[in-house]
Amino acid sequence: MLSVIFQLIQTNMDPDILERYISEHRMHHFEGTTGVRQFEKLVEDMGYTDGQFIGRHGILNFLADNPGAIQALIEWIEQSNVPEWEENLSDCLQEKQEENEKE
Known about the structure:
- Helices cover 71% and strands 0% of the residues.
- The longest helix is centred in the middle third of the chain and has 14 residues, at 32-45.
- It starts with a helix and ends with a helix.
- It is mainly α.
- The protein contains seven helices and no strands.
């Protein structure tokens, strides 16, 4: 899990600091709503707080300032092999839309 977080934050931060932070804040998993809240707290504690880029959303501010994190997420999506995501994205492609308009 930490390797994914390090990839997202793309930092040369001392891994012990992040490990200690996660341990001290009892962030033992990053799943579901709890995981989103914990990640939000992490990025806010890293300094991504109110209104730096996008309103009062720490995660959005973090992503706006760190395009490498967005790229890491896109790569993760690509590697996840979720058929529903592929189908939904396929439905959004211009060629597919044009075919549907002709029918």
